[in-house]
Amino acid sequence: MPKQIAIYGKGGIGKSSTASNVAAACADEGYRVTIIGCDPKSDSSITLLRGRRIPTIMDLMREGMDIKEEDIVFNGYKGVKCVEIGGPEPGIGCAGRGIIVAISLLKKISKAIEDTDLVIYDVPGDIVCGGFVAPVKKGLVNEAYVLTSGEYMPLYAANNICKGLSRLEMTLNGVICNSRGAPNEENIVSEFAKEIGSQLLAFIPKDVLVQTCEREGFSVIENAPDSNIAGVYRKLARSIMTRNEGKIPVPLDDARLRELTRI
Amino acid sequence: MPVKQKEPLIMHPRPSSIVAALYTLRDLDTDVVILHGPPGCCFKHARLLEEDGMRVVTTSLDESGFVFGGHDSLVEVLEKVIERFKPKRIGIVGTCASMIIGEELHEAVTQVQPDVPVIEVEVHAGYRDNTKGVIMALESALACRIISEAEFERQKALLKEATMVEKRHGAASKEYLAPSRGDLKFKVAGRLLELIKEGKKGLNILNAKKETAFMFADINLAVDEAAKKFGSRIVNMANLDENVGLPKNRRNAREIREELTQKGMELHHIIGGLDEYPIAGNTASRIIGEKYQDFDFAVITGVPHALPMDNIKNMELFSITNGPRQVAPLKEMGHQHVVVEIDLHPKTLGVSHIVESEFGATLREMSRDA
Ligand SMILES: Nc1ncnc2c1ncn2[C@@H]1O[C@H](COP(=O)(O)OP(=O)(O)O)[C@@H](O)[C@H]1O
Ligand code: SF4
Ligand SMILES: [Mg+2]
Hints:
The complex is a heterodimer of chains A (263) and B (370). Chain A is built from eleven helices and eight strands. With 263 residues, chain A is of the alpha/beta class. Chain A is globular. Chain B is built from 15 helices and ten strands. In chain B, α4 (71-85) crosses α6 (105-112), α10 runs parallel beside α11 and α10 runs parallel beside α15 (358-369). The interface between A and B is medium-sized, with 19 and 13 residues. Bound molecules: adenosine-5'-diphosphate, iron/sulfur cluster and magnesium ion. Adenosine-5'-diphosphate (ADP) binds at residues 9, 11-17, 125, 178, 204, 206-207, 210-211, 214 of chain A.
């Protein structure tokens, strides 16, 4: 069975950039990787596809297409298989149901989530309803990672996600710090990770390269392979691929969370 | 990438996939089914199915269930069902409400760990063809090893045909079909008796869907009685093969067949089983082509629109259906007389004997007076 992971965290914190850079780094190491974008914004795989936007499963469903694997699974950087679920227009219909339907369709028509070494589910920042945890509930995710910075709000979101995970009896396999340059950030996130019963897997510095590469339609792994930050993503990718112990997280109370961000 | 041929809009309400799943679970001898959804969902059929001995209960999701999820209710109801009914086989059936909010039926089963098989059907009513509900129920039954792979494939092929039959000449054939009560029974019975009395040669075909045969067979029986009385030649065909289908369908075929035999009606041709109504018409058509092409009239009960017109188009056709929306398509196919047995299905639940039909009764009455 492939490693099936989901990366959670506050909206805008860097889940998609981390997911695509980790995907690219794993592909460099020779792993077969599949990335499933579950955010209706459908921006998980652009940097693996040289800036190209692929049709989403929801787009094709809306048009009444008879969907085949080749219509929705696209080969990106070094053969990374890219799928975007997409969603309805904001404020219309039910995006959660969309994810449920798309996941069952994908399972039915494609081997992309089975015949592979790593599947990354890039989920939206807020798990707003039952549909957004469909991959977890349907047993398609067996490892969860939380991405946060050392600021209060992202940590608050991370802590909330831990509440959700423990309710779903889903293990947390590690915390990743995506730095926003807050003071004492690495210590704060490391302490947070420890207190919820997990550990800090990586400290990704804030680096403008991420954004410049992104603007050109690339991951830093592809466009700036020798950069310092590419090295950080590689190290993270290796530790994701080699470890697998996880624990159901124990969320903190709000008072402790506030206190933490003051250290 | 091929664009799916856009299915034309159909506006009249049609059978529901959830209900189809419920009936399939009954055919699989399920003792209790839990509908995971709002209290009123499938109310009428849930009640009717109890006549067949299957209990249907609901998790009664309400507004707060929609918002906060219904997992706990499902667990509670599942536990209560096990305690109260001591079922040997349980079904859990989804509804639009629970499926849209992403309820996982299996989570409750994992939590409760019943020691009897649970058939989980994640169905909602939003499928174009209600046969989807049957297929989903059968898929789960297959996963629980309650039916064999071979039976599953057989059923799937039949359902595909059933869907095609409805598309060609049935409830899915038009954008809108108005309901109709059909032709007057005494007029149609009068014309039928006229032909019989003239000594015309007739075909008497039962091609009914599952338990509806309990009442449709009564009409074929009445036709056979009249033909005997007036000494005219009648050939009887019926989809009463008792060696195919799910347990209930086999049982029912045997019961009806035995009763017909006991009442002196000879079945000249068995054209299939009670679940083979979508294809039994083809078998009948082939037999007619080989042997009876020169016959004068045909009485077809049950699913008359599943009988191809090729070999019967020169006959005077009498069809008896239970679908008020089936009248117009049958007339369009060329059936001269179309009779509707209103509300037939409910009367055929929970029975093991042939049930009197209005048209059968009319025919008997008029034949007695003649
Ligand atoms: N380590 C980083 N350094 C600099 N910018 C980053 C870093 N990580 C992410 N970003 C930028 O932050 C923005 C939001 O990231 P994104 O991955 O889209 O977040 P999410 O998927 O969590 O909503 C993007 O423009 C991205 O390039
Ligand atoms: S909409 Fe769906 S869930 Fe609601 S009552 Fe109708 S069939 Fe049941
Ligand atoms: Mg994102």
